[in-house]
Fold these 2 entries.
Entry 1:
Amino acid sequence: EKDNNILITPVVSRVNAENHTLEYLYIPDLPVLKRDLEKNWVFFENSGKLHCLYSISPYRLFVQEHLKGWQKIDLPAANLHWDIEGHVSVSTNPIMVDGSLLVWFHTRHDKTDTYHQGAALINPKTFKIEYYTRTPLVSGGKCEGRRPGLLYISSCVYLKERKLLRVYYGEADAHSSYMDFNKRDLITAIRKFPVEVKEVEQTEIKI
């Protein structure tokens, strides 16, 4: 049954290709203390299992075993040392590029209502964050529309034959578009910033 006490939450749905519709299945029952407003969860498949990246800083990742309950993957509680102040949230579903899972993340600067986007590479075997940008790759500020500071990346697609990474984004709460990155240039830029040992805190996360 749907939980009517939750105002906003991610759900799992099935794509009906014939009718071009989404069919609601369930709300993921992650072992976390849920708030009235839950968003920015992202899902991906790895080794035949559904995974949910709940947050990237602190880093919390869950896996669903045989369509049953969700289990937290035991990982160091890494906090990203991001140059922009504010809470760091996940933006896109991780996708496989050159042997790593590429994921975009963002921070909203409260005073200016400006969104800043960065990217990270995750090892698909250990699930450890191995590289991430320290400064924004994309930022709002001069967007056309209701909110000039809002430039929000929502998905990333690897166009392998063209060696491009296409990023779809919403701009200023007014319209949407996409931008293309040369795959080699973007991955090389992210790999310039490996995670340092001192950045990984061996602290337990209470769930």
Note: The radius of gyration is 17 Å.
Entry 2:
Amino acid sequence: GTSQPYTALYGAPSLNARGDGVFGAIVGTTHELGEVSNGATSTFAINSSAPQPAMDAAGDMVVTSTNRSTGLNQITLFRNGFVSQTSIATGTDFSYLDTTPGISDDGNVVVFQGTLTAAGATHLGFSAGAGIFASVNTGSAWQVIRVTGLMVEVLGSGGNNDGVCDAGETCKNAAELGYDDNNSPINFSSYPTNSRIAVTNVDFGAA
């Protein structure tokens, strides 16, 4: 009805253990994120046709949206109440970013599916192509690492034989899921779209 605050609400909201929540909505023609925390609602306008945010224990949120200038997807971390935002991944390094990133309960690890470009591979220091990635809060910066889609050096193929896939070496897919009965590596061959990636960050303390 005309008295409702939202024109439409998207599915796939996210809640944390203390009852905070984040959801996608349309108000008139504006797409926005709405956060409910400690009984108060705050909103932030985003460019996304179907936002699927995820929330951590402190109320921080991660979401995929579309950059208005480039038209490419980007993943952004918003602090509780939208007081600040941090870019996690952008079209500068990725030709594709999936719509359902995840975040650890402590907010220190953001995971997402994407396709790393050749330029992004040079920038980040690992192989291009599709895979699952994690952005880890080191305390001073957010560092992106590749979780799946890993490549390793083919030993004895003329490289330095350290097992690391360096530029110019002959490489193969890593055994991400172990080996089969024929000792052949098992790995992910493809990734579904719009499928939430879960992550748990376990702190074992100082080494």
Note: The chain has one helix and 16 strands.
